[in-house]
Amino acid sequence: QFGRYLIEVALGVPVSLAAPSVFTLYGARPNLKDALVVGISQSGESTDTNSFLEHARKLGALTVGITNENRSAMAGLVDVPLVVRAGRERSSRTIRAGPSGTGWLSQRQA
Description:
The chain is of the alpha/beta class. The protein has helices at 2-11, 21-24, 47-58, 73-77, 93-96; strands at 16-17, 35-41, 62-67, 80-83, 103-108.
């Protein structure tokens, strides 16, 4: 949620969280031309997040991946990888699987 608030407050650009099931379960192909889609994954290996980013890129979105691992799948598949180099993860699987571990921000240009 922090990224959403930061972009909306600082830039005045509306942001929406996206659901990966739009692609994976329902097979929808939303128009993402001129959209920015940001995926966040500590390891960069989150299957759902990476799948969403891959689909979004194919549908015309500019994709950004925020991860801790420069050799991760995410860093290799997005247009712009942002590697935070925060050091080794120390959280439990339960914490990592929460909403702060993966997320998508999308923004449509007017």
